[in-house]
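Weekly structure sync - notes
Attendees: PM, LS, DV (DV joined late)
Agenda: review two folding runs queued last week.

Item 1: First target. Sequence and structure tokens pasted below for the record.
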Amino acid sequence: MSDELIHVRTAIPGYAGFADVSARRLSDQQVRAWVGERLAALSQRLPLGDASTAFDDALLHCEFGDQRVIKALDDSRFAAPEVAAQLEAEDGRLLNVAAAAATVDAAGLAAFIGGVREALRRRTDAIIGR
């Protein structure tokens, strides 16, 4: 089991993974919810100022499933162990980036949000690009 997957399963008890369509859809929701919760807590802790538009974009990405991702997750090729491992690793990288929400300060806010948006984009691209 990769370090990323260990991190995901520690952060999200009951992480569904990519074994079947239902699991893939659930894991998508679980990961987006976890990241969204970190963003919401951050917005309670720090004023967003100039970063508010980028923050809102990232939060919306977490709140609403991307229909391209949902449709792609229906494909059975995601159940292949090597593909599932790649996508689970992408989930782990996203969670690692978002976990910094607890410690980011005002000076690092814009860079942090940019990093979250990039990690969300990479995860989306990894899924729909398959």
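Item 2: Second target, run right after the first with the same settings.
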Amino acid sequence: MTPSMTATHPNVTGLAATIKHVGHKLYMDSFFSTPTLFDDLCIKPVDCCGTVRRNRKGMPKYFGHKVSMKRGDLRD
């Protein structure tokens, strides 16, 4: 386990190994989801989606800052 991994990382990747190459999607709540986990699952053919906390380990510092936008505005 590397320093950027959380304690739940090996559990989720182990369970996700059973659904790779099957076409299932993995949905997670904010307890399990981290950027490192999503990167690892993306390398393996596992589609995943989940909510994430702003202060989660490995999240970019600029992530989640409120930006004033108007209807029709686009942001990359």
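Discussion on item 2: The mean pLDDT is 80.
Action: LS to circulate a short write-up before next sync.
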